[in-house]
Amino acid sequence: MKKLLLLTFSIILFFSCSSNKSVIYLQGIEKYNETAIPTNYEVKIKPDDHLSIIVNCSKPELAAPFNMQ
């Protein structure tokens, strides 16, 4: 019984340390770097301007803490 438990624990530990390459976090960011942010405009922020930042995602409840009401 102890050998089976040790084998199961070893397998779980071995596979839990591998990274998932199907998640895109910052992998291959070089090819998106030029097209992600348009560079054909000039930002003009002046004193007393009111700025707003809105966070969007596929699950709105995850973005809710970052958006002010």
Question: What's the topology here?
Answer:
Blueprint: H1 2-16, H2 29-36, H3 60-63
Characteristics:
69 residues; mainly alpha; 0% strand; elongated
Notes on the protein architecture:
The protein is an all-alpha fold and 69 residues long. It contains three helices and no strands. It has helices at residues 2-16, 29-36, 60-63. The radius of gyration is 23 Å and the shape is elongated.
| Low confidence ranges | none
Largest sheet geometry: none
- Count up the helices: 3
Gap between N and C termini? 57 Å
Rg, alpha carbons: 23 Å
**Fraction in helix:** 25-40%
Structural class: mainly alpha
The string of secondary-structure elements, in order, is HHH
3D shape: elongated
* Overall pLDDT: 77
Q: How many β-strand runs?
A: 0
Q: Please indicate the percent range of residues in DSSP E strands (runs of 2 or more).
A: under 5%
Short structural description:
The protein has 69 residues and is mainly alpha-helical. 39% of the residues lie in helices and 0% in strands. It is built from 3 helices and no strands.
